[in-house]
What we know:
The protein has helices spanning 13-24, 31-40, 44-53, 61-72, 90-99, 112-120, 158-172, 174-181, 194-208; strands at 2-6, 28-30, 81-84, 104-109, 122-125, 131-133, 150-151, 185-189. By secondary structure, the chain is α/β, with parallel strands linked by helices. The protein has one domain (2-208): 3-Layer(aba) Sandwich (Rossmann fold). A five-stranded parallel β-sheet has the order 2-3-1-4-8, sandwiched between helices. Strands 6-5-7 form a three-stranded antiparallel β-sheet. It is globular and about 40 Å long.
Amino acid sequence: MRIVLLGPPGAGKGSQAERLAAYYGVPHISTGNIMRELRKNETELGFLLDSYMSKGLLVPDGITLEIMEERLEKDDCKNGFLLDGFPRSVPQAIAFEKDYPDVHVINLNVSNRLIQKRIAGRRTCAECSSPYNINTLGGKNYCPKCGGELVQRSDETDEAVKNRLQVYNDLTKPLIKFYIDKHILVGVDGNKSIDEVFADIVSILEKKK
């Protein structure tokens, strides 16, 4: 099972990706998580990634493709994978399609109002990188999985989020038409609860098996 999960920032891709990856027994590959991990290393690549990501800008296609090519060649991807945050542009999708033509593409449709609410409450575990939203944690200020500190990412400040949404509209949103034209994209109402969205996605994927 090879799944590509699309949607704007705050659409709930991370939450759905974790559940879907566990359900289908495939690795959840988050481009953002990979790049954030690389940023922690004080290397030339790490500093380069930070110069884009901290401002909410899209990392150049060549760099992203090189990072993803290396990740997808690992043994745990032989039986499938779930991609969260890749591809993010049509050129990335065209390059990706050459090696992986058979994928299921799910697009989460979410209202702007809900996106803003979700992003304002988003936090990430500093230890295991699990995503959460303070609006659904019942007052907890630590990671339910490992007890790590929950922090706001540098790319989720007001200015960075504004830039990310602009980048999405300019570069990532055209992916929707790209995959619609190939008849492999299915839209899902991401305004529903996490459980309802998950059930809708599984229903779609099961029909495509």
